[in-house]
Amino acid sequence: MTSEKPSMVKICGIKEEATLRGMNGLPVEYIGFVFAKSRRQLTPMQAAQLQAVSKQIPMAGGKPPLTVGVFVDPTMEQLAETLSDVPLDVVQLHGEETPEFSREVRERFRIDVWRALPISEGSEPTSKQSGADRLTAYKDAVSTILLDTAGGGTGTAFRWDVIPSYQEAARNNGLRLFIAGGLNPDNADELITTYLPDGVDISSGVETDGVKDNHKIAAFVERVKSS
């Protein structure tokens, strides 16, 4: 276990104002806007409008959620343009970004940076050393490591038995560890009860026919926070 506190929740791929309004009062710490090419992609102006709405909606602790922008191999110029339009709280890097690039983003924009690390489906449990090596490289560049199924946004889970090696490495390096990939209201309890990660990140697992489903969001959050 990484923490005695309930796992934090990030609902990613927000596209509609109605989704945010339906989350009023839910203990959700983070919401995610996708700027990388995908069916959930937003323009900076669309994200700015949604962020303005989110600031009016109390969620975890009675406060508005923090906003996370998801990028895949952006340039510094692209980040600068986006952040000038929408003042995000977190930049999440989901491509091949190096520790050096991640550190430069944090220092240049004075913003919290998360780094997603892909885990292949069906991969064997990672050795302590290999898990530690992947995380240690980002020790002074990011605050949070997000483990996600390779490819991201697939709705498919990776083998959770790789999680402990990454949890140990995260603790040793002062990093938080979030889990994504194939999560849904039906498997949230197993993940939290077994591993209690610092946080969980979900998108397709709380959708119906490709659209965010507030009933599924509420069910997922309840199971994460009560497990």
From TrEMBL:
GO terms for molecular function: phosphoribosylanthranilate isomerase activity. The keyword Amino-acid biosynthesis applies. InterPro entries: Aldolase_TIM, PRAI_dom, RibuloseP-bd_barrel, TrpF_fam. One of its GO terms (biological process) is L-tryptophan biosynthetic process. It holds the Pfam family PRAI. Keywords: Amino-acid biosynthesis, Aromatic amino acid biosynthesis, Isomerase, Tryptophan biosynthesis. Residues 9-222 form the N-(5'phosphoribosyl) anthranilate isomerase (PRAI) domain. Coiled coil: none annotated. Its EC number is 5.3.1.24. The keyword Electron transport does not apply. HAMAP family: PRAI. Belongs to the TrpF family. This is N-(5'-phosphoribosyl)anthranilate isomerase.
